[in-house]
């Protein structure tokens, strides 16, 4: 984009944001209501969430559970999916079970997890992992299955072992598909993180939001939601930048075929 | 021991009951021989190479490498596939692609041999580029480097120059002949280009249309080194070319 | 095709189905193995047959089926609302580049907020009730419809629009006769994604606020120690989720046979 157009865009974007904030502040002042706190307390509550003490009590527990659950889901989904996709003959055996499990609305297993693990971190990590594993698994199976068969012939000629075939040929070829699955998994993981804290927790952002809602500390409620938005945005951007690096070769190929066609 | 390097004995292959591809293919290739196989598109040349390399097993008949038969590709065999833009690992640089054949070799030796192979195919300047950054001819040279870096004895070439432009094609032909000469490699070149077959090979095997079978083997006794201009103007070249052309044309009818 | 060909295809379909059934049976067996190892209290993990019985009797005697009906109602209304708003919003964003540009930072920030986090906010503003449930479901489900509509309109070949101009369509006609139909495959995919999200939200709201529905049912039987009923409820919910997706895929196949997604065969 040329510079002046970019500047103009920036101007209008800032103007829109400022206008909406002003509208909010105006209604908060002229029509005071418990659910409509002015901007200042919300901003202060948001900043106080970043203070080390609050951060460790509220944001960190959520983040660490997300990291473990989502990390498990990505690793398990990728490894299992790559292997299952490569072993095509297994597909008819597992397909119906997988197709059923992937469409179970993930929250439905929350009571079961509570029953099995109690209101523990294991339960929360389990729900996050269960929710986010299926998009990764199915994307990995799909990517591995549609991989380039000629490269497997090359691998046979070059005497790759089974593990080398899986991790050096099938997996890299499935990565574009896997990343698409991981992006979906991240948003599901965030949702499951929050739900598991809304329903049974004594720390974490979901708990913070719910408790402050019960105490009518609405500024804190909005601050918590804003913090979740921030986390979601940062994680999404982080994921995109990893993807951009890892899949540079893929964009190169695609760019080329787009240019040709 | 004078087992031929490669010997095909009555090899037949069908993908399904009504799609017979190879029928009773029989020929031999000696050590240090440059063999060219010509046949029309779709007649089953790639299928035959897959049987030779044990990527696929024939329905009947046998493939022997120095008298032995194999279930897995013999370690001394390399292939350059027809589809160059799908046979390189797109996520690896040129150097890393070539390295894939030497995974068990010590680092320092590996680096040397990779550099050597890249120099041999005149690709040393592009070692750090990725396949998508290369032209078709460069991609094919990268595949060639990967094939020769393992120091194979038999190099299978599946229409390696089919989809590059005319000038690149000529350069690649000279390059392959030169490499085979220097490394005393036996090569089996599959092609549908008669000029190319006669120009490069010591022996041309003519295949019929599908189901493919050997129609005739024609020894090419043109002296080496061969030159794109002078060799192709000699009466011997022209008469061999005429002979092969006539056979291939008869097949088409 | 010859009759032997048909027979072969039938036989291969039958083996595929058989393998699938075996896979399901293997899953049941795995469940039973986990039960027998004793890692988990057997009362928490009832036998597969008990779970099925609970699901069946819940469906027949009305507990689960009436809960499911409640969920279905709020799900459909939320999804319908999200679809209308999403398509209108997506069209607006695609056709008014100025609007898209100005609102981009806000949309980019709103989108990654896990929608369930807004449940407490919605409780504050709207209280516990139908409107809150409807708002939450449609708020969460609107995004996929919105963004896929936008992507659909943007993917249209400009030549289509020129054709419309040549045919003398006015602006409204161009939207109704060209833009919308041409972006329908995208919109359909968006609605299918939205349907799954809406279902999750419907269930979550029921669980958290005690509004009647399958989510409330599952949580409630758990609190009462009825584990077979709980697993039965989850089983049925999964089947429901599966059927919802199958329904949408079926509708897409039927109404959009020209869509690229239906041309894979
Ligand atoms: N995996 C396969 N299954 C069924 N038919 C195939 C398969 N691979 C190739 N064929 C068919 O076999 C014939 C010969 O193919 P191929 O060996 O690739 O020919 P060539 O390399 O001479 O062009 C072609 O008609 C092709 O369609
Ligand atoms: Mg071929």
What does this structure look like?
The complex is a heterotrimer of chains A (261), B (253) and C (265). Chain A has helices at residues 3-30, 39-49, 52-86, 91-103, 110-117, 121-145, 149-157, 162-199, 205-214, 218-246, 248-260. Chain A has 261 residues and is mostly helical. Chain A is globular. Chain B has 253 residues and is an alpha/beta fold. Chain B folds into three domains: 1-18 and 47-74, no CATH class; 76-190, Rossmann fold; 194-253, no CATH class. Chain B has a six-stranded mixed beta sheet, with helices on both faces. In chain B, strands 2-1-4 form a three-stranded antiparallel beta sheet, covered by helices on one side. In chain C, helix 2 (48-61) crosses helix 10. The model of chain C has no long low-confidence stretch (mean pLDDT 87). Chain C has one domain (47-264): MetI-like (MetI-like fold, Orthogonal Bundle), CATH 1.10.3720.10. The chains are: A mainly alpha (261), B alpha/beta (253), C mainly alpha (265). Chain A binds chain B through residues 148, 150-151, 153-154, 156-159, 164, 168-169, 172-173, 175, 248-250, 252-253, 255-256, and chain B through 50, 53, 55, 72-73, 75, 77-79, 81, 83, 86-87, 89-91, 100-101, 103, 130-133, 146, 150. The structure holds adenosine-5'-diphosphate and magnesium ion (MG). Magnesium ion (MG) is lined by residues 45-46, 82, 158-159 of chain B. Residues 15, 19, 21, 39, 41-47 of chain B line the site of adenosine-5'-diphosphate. Chain B: It comes from Pseudohoeflea suaedae.
Which protein chains are joined by the largest interface, and how many residues does each one contribute? A-C, 57 and 61 residues
Helical region count of chain B?
9
Shape of chain C: flat
Structural class of chain B: alpha/beta
Could you say what the CATH architecture of the largest domain in chain B is?
Answer: 3-Layer(aba) Sandwich
| CATH fourth-tier homologous superfamily of the largest domain in chain B | P-loop containing nucleotide triphosphate hydrolases
Structural class of chain C: mainly alpha
Q: Give average pLDDT of chain C, whole number.
A: 87
The CATH architecture of chain C would be: Orthogonal Bundle
| Assembly category | heterotrimer
Keywords (chain B): ATP-binding, Nucleotide-binding, Transport
Family (chain B): Belongs to the ABC transporter superfamily.
Pfam family, one (chain B): ABC_tran
InterPro entries (chain B): AAA+_ATPase (IPR003593), ABC_transporter-like_ATP-bd (IPR003439), ABC_transporter_ATP-bind (IPR050166), P-loop_NTPase (IPR027417)
């Amino acid at each position: 984009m040329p510079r002046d157009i970019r500047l103009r865009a920036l101007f209008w974007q800032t103007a829109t944001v400022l206008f909406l904030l002003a509208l909010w502040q105006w209604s908060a002042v002229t029509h005071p209501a418990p659910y409509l706190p002015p901007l200042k307390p919300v901003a202060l509550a948001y900043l106080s969430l970043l203070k080390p003490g609050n951060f460790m009590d509220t944001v960190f527990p959520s983040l660490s559970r997300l990291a473990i659950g989502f990390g498990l889901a990505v690793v398990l989904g990728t490894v299992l999916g790559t292997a299952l996709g490569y072993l095509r003959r297994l597909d008819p055996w597992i397909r119906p079970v997988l197709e059923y499990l992937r469409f179970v609305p993930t929250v439905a297993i929350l009571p079961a997890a509570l029953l099995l693990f109690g209101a523990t971190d294991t339960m929360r990590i389990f729900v996050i992992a269960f929710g986010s594993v299926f998009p990764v698994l199915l994307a990995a199976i799909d990517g591995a299955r549609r991989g380039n068969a000629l490269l497997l012939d090359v691998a046979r000629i070059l005497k790759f072992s089974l593990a080398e075939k899986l991790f050096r040929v099938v997996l890299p070829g499935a990565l574009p598909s896997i990343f698409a699955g991981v992006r979906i998994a991240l948003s599901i993981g965030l949702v499951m993180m929050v739900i598991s804290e809304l329903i049974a927790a004594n720390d974490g952002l979901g708990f913070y939001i719910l408790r402050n809602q019960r105490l009518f500390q609405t500024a804190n409620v909005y601050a918590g939601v804003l913090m979740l938005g921030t986390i979601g945005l940062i994680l999404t951007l982080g994921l995109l930048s990893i993807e951009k690096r890892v899949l540079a070769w893929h964009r190169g190929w695609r760019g080329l075929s787009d240019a040709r066609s | 021991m004078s087992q031929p390097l490669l010997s095909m004995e009555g090899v037949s292959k069908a993908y399904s009951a009504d799609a017979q591809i190879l029928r009773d293919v029989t020929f031999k290739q000696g050590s240090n021989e440059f063999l060219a196989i010509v046949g029309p598109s779709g007649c089953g040349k790639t299928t035959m190479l897959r049987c030779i390399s044990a990527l696929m097993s024939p329905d009947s008949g046998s493939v022997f490498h120095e008298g032995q038969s194999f279930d897995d590709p013999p370690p001394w065999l390399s292939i350059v596939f027809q589809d160059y833009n799908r046979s390189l690992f797109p996520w690896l640089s040129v150097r890393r692609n070539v390295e894939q054949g030497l995974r068990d070799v010590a680092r320092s030796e590996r680096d040397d041999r990779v550099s050597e192979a890249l120099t041999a195919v005149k690709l040393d300047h592009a070692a750090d580029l990725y396949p998508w950054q290369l032209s078709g001819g460069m991609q094919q040279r990268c595949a060639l480097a990967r094939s020769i870096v393992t120091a194979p004895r038999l190099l299978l070439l599946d229409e390696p120059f089919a989809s590059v432009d005319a000038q690149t094609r000529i350069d690649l032909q000279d390059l392959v002949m030169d490499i085979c000469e220097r490394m005393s490699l036996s090569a089996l070149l599959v092609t549908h280009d008669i000029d190319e077959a006669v120009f490069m090979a010591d022996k041309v095997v003519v295949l019929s249309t599908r189901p493919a079978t050997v129609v005739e083997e024609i020894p090419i006794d043109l002296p080496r080194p061969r030159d794109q201009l002078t060799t192709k103007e000699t009466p011997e070249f022209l008469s061999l070319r005429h002979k092969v052309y006539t056979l291939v044309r008869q097949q088409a009818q | 095709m010859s009759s032997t060909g048909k027979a072969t295809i039938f036989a291969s379909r039958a083996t595929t189905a058989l393998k699938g059934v075996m896979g399901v049976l293997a899953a049941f067996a795995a469940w039973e193995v986990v039960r027998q190892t004793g890692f988990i209290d057997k009362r928490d993990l009832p036998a597969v047959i008990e779970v099925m019985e609970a699901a069946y009797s819940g469906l027949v005697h009305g507990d689960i089926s009436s809960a499911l009906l409640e969920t279905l109602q709020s799900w459909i209304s939320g999804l319908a609302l999200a679809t209308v708003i999403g398509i209108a919003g997506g069209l607006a964003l695609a056709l008014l580049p100025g609007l898209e540009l100005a609102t981009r930072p806000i949309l980019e920030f709103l989108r990654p907020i896990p929608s369930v986090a807004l449940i407490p906010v919605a409780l504050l503003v709207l209280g516990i009730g139908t409107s809150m449930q409807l708002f939450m479901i449609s708020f969460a489900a609107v995004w996929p419809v919105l963004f896929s509509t936008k992507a659909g309109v943007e993917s249209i070949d400009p030549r289509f629009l020129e054709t419309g101009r040549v045919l003398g369509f006015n602006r409204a006609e161009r939207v109704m006769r060209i833009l919308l139909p041409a972006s329908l495959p995208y919109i359909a995919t968006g609605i299918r994604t939205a349907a799954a999200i809406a279902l999750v939200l419907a269930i979550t709201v029921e669980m958290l606020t005690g509004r009647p529905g399958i989510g409330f049912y599952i949580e409630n039987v758990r609190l009462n120690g009825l584990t077979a009923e709980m697993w039965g409820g989850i089983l049925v919910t999964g089947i429901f989720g599966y059927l919802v997706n199958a329904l949408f895929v079926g509708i897409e196949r039927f109404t959009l046979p020209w869509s690229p997604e239906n041309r894979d065969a």
